[in-house]
TrEMBL record:
Lineage: Bacteria, Pseudomonadati, Pseudomonadota, Gammaproteobacteria, Alteromonadales
Keywords in alphabetical order: Cell membrane, Membrane, Transmembrane, Transmembrane helix, Transport
Domain of life: Bacteria
Protein location: Cell membrane
Record-annotated membrane-spanning stretches: 18-36, 56-75, 82-102, 108-130, 142-161, 173-192, 235-256, 268-287, 299-316, 322-346, 358-377, 383-402
Protein name as annotated: MFS transporter
Record bears the keyword Transcription: no
């Protein structure tokens, strides 16, 4: 009896360590991903480029991250979840040393392209890792806390970048980034269960030595195509991608609006709008409880209404209505993202990392495409135009939610 109790306690401790390890890793990843967004003025000044050229750094990182997610899905399904996460994080910390000594803008672009590849490991693997090692109820809780960690990392990265831009030089900023990343990576490595334990639990799908390279490639292609042929997965991917396409770029354009008359906020003050992410942080934490109580479709409906009302509220164009509107939009977005993330991980009974990486690939491609799309509306009518463009995206989100619901209730489930 004592042995059974000891085993239960050990399993619970391992689950807790896994959850917090991946949450710390998530904070590290999103600080590194979004730090440059708050540093664009310093970046442009230090490398003597225009503000529009400086934004290329954000696009380069997002694109390399998006497509690298698919590679990590294949690698982690073959060799396990633990090693790709640990190796990529330590390489990320070392790559920050390169940022200290980059001498021109082109070199910075290359380093950020490389970092996008390294940043992809944790988001590509985390949800599959949770699904394989945690019970369904614990997995939902872990997913909510993990999304909350994403939000915290996004807020911290942008605000830290804004403070660096105002108070530190480029080299000082990059040294601080290196030290923050190093501390986070060391803590993640300490908390993450051992390689042997992780491999036993993960059941990673390694191919037999006798299988040819061609056969392995076909297996990988089948793993991706298997999820893409599932209409429920496709609509979950669409919901997440279009929602992020709208939300993250709204936050970019509202900064331009707040720096113009009549507000005329400073560049650092404009980054404070990212504190509105805090409503999403709270919503992420409670998502598992609300999913169990109200169901996925009800949460989708509520989150869509929050994003619609929040966007419209900003048209009143006061500081209060803008802040309240973005609090509502962020809350709605993170509810949607948590629902999609959990749904994809729970629905995939095989090739889980491929399923979650496909979702996140659509998610980050949405972010990259949303900038040029909403820029067209910004040039026509500035912030009012951005809201109008967002309403079109909200219509597509509503259609995707409706179609997902249809396939869940009217069609037989597809085993994935």
């Amino acid at each position: 009896m004592q042995a059974v109790l000891d085993t239960i306690i050990d399993n619970k401790q391992r689950d807790t360590r896994l959850m917090w390890a991946l949450c710390v890793a998530s904070v590290v990843v999103y600080i590194n991903l979004y730090l440059m967004q708050g540093m664009l003025p310093l970046l442009a000044e230090h490398f003597a480029v225009s503000g529009s050229q400086a934004t290329l750094i954000l696009s380069v990182t997002s694109f390399s991250l998006a497509f690298s997610l698919l590679i990590y899905a294949v690698v982690s399904d073959r060799i396990g979840r633990h090693t790709p996460i640990v190796v990529s994080l330590w390489l990320l910390a070392l790559s920050n040393l390169l940022l200290i000594w980059v001498e021109d803008f082109n070199a910075l672009v290359y380093v950020r392209f490389l970092q996008g590849i390294l940043l992809a490991a944790v988001p590509a693997i985390a949800m599959a890792y949770f699904k394989e090692q945690l019970s369904p109820s614990t997995m939902l809780k872990a997913a909510g806390i993990y999304i909350m960690a994403n939000s915290i990392g996004g807020i911290a990265g942008r605000l830290l970048g804004g403070m660096m831009s105002q108070f530190l030089s480029w080299q000082e900023s990059m040294w601080l980034l290196f030290l923050v990343t190093l501390a986070g990576v060391a803590l993640t490595s300490y908390l993450l269960p051992s390689v042997a334990d992780a491999k036993v639990m993960s059941g990673a799908q390694t191919s037999a030595p006798s299988v040819s390279k061609r056969a392995r490639l076909l297996q990988d292609f089948y793993g991706f195509s298997h999820h893409l042929t599932d209409p429920q997965m496709r609509f979950a991917y669409a919901i997440g991608g279009i929602t992020f396409m709208m939300m993250v770029n709204q936050f970019s354009f509202i900064q331009l609006h707040l720096m113009a008359a009549p507000y005329e906020w400073s560049r650092f003050q404009a980054t404070l709008i990212f504190l509105c992410y805090s409503s999403g942080t709270v919503a992420s934490y409670f998502t598992a409880k609300w999913l169990a109580k109200f169901g996925q479709h009800r949460l989708y409906q509520w989150s869509w209404c929050l994003m619609l009302l929040g966007s419209l509220l900003t048209l009143f164009d006061t500081t209060a209505t803008i802040c309240i509107g973005f609090l509502m939009t962020a809350c709605g977005f993170f509810l949607t993202h948590s629902c999609c993330n959990s749904f994809v991980a729970m629905r995939a009974s095989r090739d889980r990392a491929k399923a979650t990486s496909l979702y996140l690939c659509c998610y980050y491609l949405g972010a990259a495409l949303g900038g040029p799309y909403l820029m067209l509306f910004w040039h026509k009518a500035e912030w009012q135009g951005v809201v109008m463009g967002s309403l079109t995206l909200l219509a597509l989100i509503a259609l995707s939610i409706t179609r997902l619901r249809y396939h869940q209730t009217k069609m037989s489930p597809i085993a994935v």
